């Protein structure tokens, strides 16, 4: 069974494995935006949400918070939300962490981008948990798209990908196949075939991205179903 980032972290949680810590930092770097959105939707302003996010990561990386994780139920999504809620529920610890970690850089976070995404997300009728789940789902989808874009660019097909990527996120794209065919110098039939293959590859990229966040690869399908259900709501 292939080792993924989260399973690697859990395997070394009782030790001081440098690679496991680096894997944890990489996961946090990738998936911090759902936490930021959750904190913002709790009523905190952008600056305090930034400091709380950094303070949470400082505590996560400094303390052995992984000790409470059950590897058999180890989804990184659930772990982050549970530990963040625990962190925020302790008012004194939170304020102390803010004083210690506020203004410092535990991870390099593009907070402006995180704030823009939060503001542009329709959250009026959503709970903080709903906001977290939705932002998580969109982050995973974005990561899968980036993974696929890099693959096509490395293969010398970056232009084709940029033209066809819009067909991945809509069953009824605004750009007709004929227009894309003309732009790429391909037949409409070839475009349809290329889109079919691209959608299949996108699904594989999505599964690969999700697999990084579960301890057991067998949980990947369930996480895919959960993500798609969140996006559709």
Write a short abstract of this structure.
By secondary structure, the protein is an all-alpha fold.
Task: Please tag this protein with its features.
233 residues, mainly alpha, 12 helices
Uncertain residue ranges: none
Distance between the termini: 33 Å
Mean of pLDDT: 85
Total number of strands: 0
The helix/strand series, from N terminus to C terminus, equals HHHHHHHHHHHH
Quote the beta fraction. Answer: under 5%
Structural class: mainly alpha
Question: Helix share of residues?
Answer: 55-70%
For the largest beta-sheet, the strand count, sense and barrel status come to: none
Rg, Å, rounded:
20 Å
Characterize the quaternary organization of these chains: single chain
- Tell the overall outline: globular
**Total of helices:** 12
Can you characterise this structure?
By secondary structure, the chain is mostly helical. The protein contains twelve helices and no strands. The protein has helices at 5-11, 18-30, 33-41, 46-62, 76-89, 91-101, 111-120, 128-154, 158-164, 177-184, 188-211, 220-232. Helix 3 packs across helix 4 (46-62), helix 3 packs antiparallel against helix 8 (128-154) and helix 4 (46-62) packs across helix 6.
């Amino acid at each position: 069974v292939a080792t993924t980032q989260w399973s690697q972290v859990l395997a070394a949680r009782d030790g001081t494995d440098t690679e496991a810590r680096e894997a944890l930092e990489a996961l946090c770097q990738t998936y911090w935006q759902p936490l930021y959105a959750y904190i913002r939707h709790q009523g905190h302003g952008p600056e305090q949400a930034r400091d709380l996010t950094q303070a949470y990561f400082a505590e996560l990386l400094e303390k052995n918070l992984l000790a409470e994780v059950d590897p058999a139920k180890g989804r990184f999504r659930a772990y982050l939300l549970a530990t963040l809620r625990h962190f925020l529920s302790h008012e004194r610890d939170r304020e102390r962490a803010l004083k210690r970690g506020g203004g410092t850089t535990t991870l390099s976070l593009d907070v402006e981008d995180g704030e823009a995404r939060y503001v542009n997300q329709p959250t009026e009728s959503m709970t903080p948990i709903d906001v977290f789940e939705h932002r998580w789902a969109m982050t995973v989808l974005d990561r899968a798209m980036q993974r696929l874009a890099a693959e096509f660019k490395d293969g010398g097909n970056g232009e084709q990908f940029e033209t066809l990527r819009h067909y991945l996120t809509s069953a009824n794209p605004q750009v007709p196949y004929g227009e894309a065919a003309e732009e790429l110098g391909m037949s409409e039939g070839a475009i349809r075939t290329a889109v079919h293959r691209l959608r299949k590859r996108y699904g594989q990229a999505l599964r690969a991205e999700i697999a990084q966040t579960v301890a057991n690869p067998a949980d990947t399908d369930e996480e895919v179903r959960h993500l798609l259900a969140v996006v559709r709501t």
